[in-house]
Amino acid sequence: PAPSPAPTSSTASFMGALCSCCCGTRDVVPDAPDVIIPDPEEDEQIVVTIDQAAIASRDYLAYRGLGTEDRNERWFFLNKSGSKWGGNVQMEVENFVRGLDPNDENKGQVLWRSDFIDQPFFQQQLRDVGGSMLQFAFTGFIDSMFDRPHYDDGYYISHGGGWDRDYRTSLFLNWNMRTEASLSSTVRKGFGFPVKLVVYAQGTGVARYFEVEEPIYEERGEGENRQRVQVGTRRRWERHEREYVDFVQFAVCDVASGQPVVDQFGAAVVFTVHGDSTDWTSNYGTKFFDVQQRGGWFTKDPPTITTKAGVDPALALLIAHLCTKEFSTAQIKSNFHPRFPYDPLSAVFGFF
After folding, report:
1. Among 37, 312, 59, 288, which residue's Cα sits nearest to residue 187?
2. What does the CA dihedral 148, 154, 160, 162 come to, rounded to 10 degrees?
3. Which of 52, 3, 4, 48 minimizes the C-alpha distance to 30?
4. What order of strands is seen across the sheet that includes strand 289-292?
5. pLDDT at 18
6. Each residue of 176-201: pLDDT tens digit?
7. How would DSSP label each residue in 54-102?
8. d(CA 91, CA 169)
9. Among 107, 116, 223, 300, which is least packed, fewest CB within 10 Å?
């Protein structure tokens, strides 16, 4: 009989969604290409496009080249497992050479793995307009190539426009976040010593408060004469909020020393990306890879990753996925929950 046709992308997504309850440590088990693409050399430059493996899946597929439609261009499977509630998770870059793990016949060979916490802790500082921004203990790394974003309060109030009330007052939150993700491999040499990806981010939240006056009613009278009468008014606070990521910094660090590793030219592997408090796009270049993605910070279009020659492309792919998905501006913003008070006039300023 003739072979069955390959499933369409919509069918594959539907089938993947059905697998989410039955595939153990993976949301989906994607079909392998007819001919498995060999692993790249550890200093080879590659171009891949990363797309979600199925609707609502945490897993992704890396396709060779610029497209994501051809099943036979599937090169790597990025399998995310672990907690779905903000705890410890793992991200593994697998090829399609399956059957090597006696406990999981669907698992490919793992080239690189990362372990991290899905929802990191954010430190917040509440202050009023023009109030002193207390000095965060900066736990990032010096990046001479990066200009710090605008910290003037008026910038954040005017950025984006669209405020539509007669506001009584405004409060600000400055926040920072630091987390890390391990980078390990049992089959690739990497740097020859344990390394990790350190992620540091800073941002700003704005809450603009206004009062709403509401009528107070009482029921008066008896029987047919009973009626609802306004006896006064009360006022309550409401607010409009906006949150911004100012920048996200990434550093590949030596686990033993905690310091960034250096490239072949002796420069520290540290790169900083503007967040959505600027008008920059999500396209950027690093010492390990370049990112091209249409649609801005919150696009769902798949990113295309071009790794740099001389860097293990499987490691560069893993770091690129962590940067563009797990620790992207959009994901950090989603994880951040500002703690503005109900009543701005009784706010307690400072760190929490």
Report:
1. 312
2. 160
3. 52
4. 110-117, 88-94, 74-82, 60-64, 47-52, 304-307, 289-292, 284-285
5. 37
6. 999 999 999 999 999 999 999 999 99
7. STT-S-EEEEESS-S--GGGEEEEEEEEE-SSSSEEEEEEE-S--S--T
8. 44
9. 223
Residues 6+ apart with CB under 8 A from 154: none
Strands (DSSP E) contained in 194-282 are 195-220, 227-254, 270-274
Assign 21 a pLDDT band (cuts: 50, 70, 90). Answer: very low
Partners of 49 in the β-ladder: 63, 304
**Assigned token pair, 30:** 């994607």
Is pTM beyond 0.90 here? Answer: no
Residue type, 23: C
CA distance 269 to 253: 8
Of the pLDDT bands very low, low, confident and very high (cuts 50, 70, 90), residue 20 is very low
Task: State whether residue 219 is helix, strand or coil.
Answer: strand
Q: What string of DSSP letters covers 263-288? A: -TTS-B-EEEEE-TTSS--S-EE-SS
Per the DSSP assignment, residues forming a β-bridge with 196 are 182, 253
107 residue type, one letter? K
Alpha helices (H) along the chain: 9-18, 153-158, 313-321, 329-335
Buried b (16+ CB within 10 A) or exposed e, 243-277: bbbbbbbbbbbeeeeeebbeeeeeebbbbbbbbbb
Give residue-wise pLDDT tens across range 275-295: 887 766 678 899 999 999 876
Q: What's the token pair of residue 53?
A: 């493996």
Q: What is the pLDDT of residues 41-65, one digit of tens each?
A: 999 999 999 999 998 899 999 999 9
pLDDT at 41: 97
Selection from 210, 139, 149, 201 nearest residue 176 by Cα: 201
Whether the per-residue pLDDT at 139 is higher than 90: the answer is no
Give the model's confidence band at 2: pLDDT under 50 very low, under 70 low, under 90 confident, else very high: very low
pLDDT at 274 over 50: yes
Alpha carbons 50 and 317: distance in angstroms, whole number:
9
Give the closest residue to 336 by CA, choosing from 141, 124, 133.
124
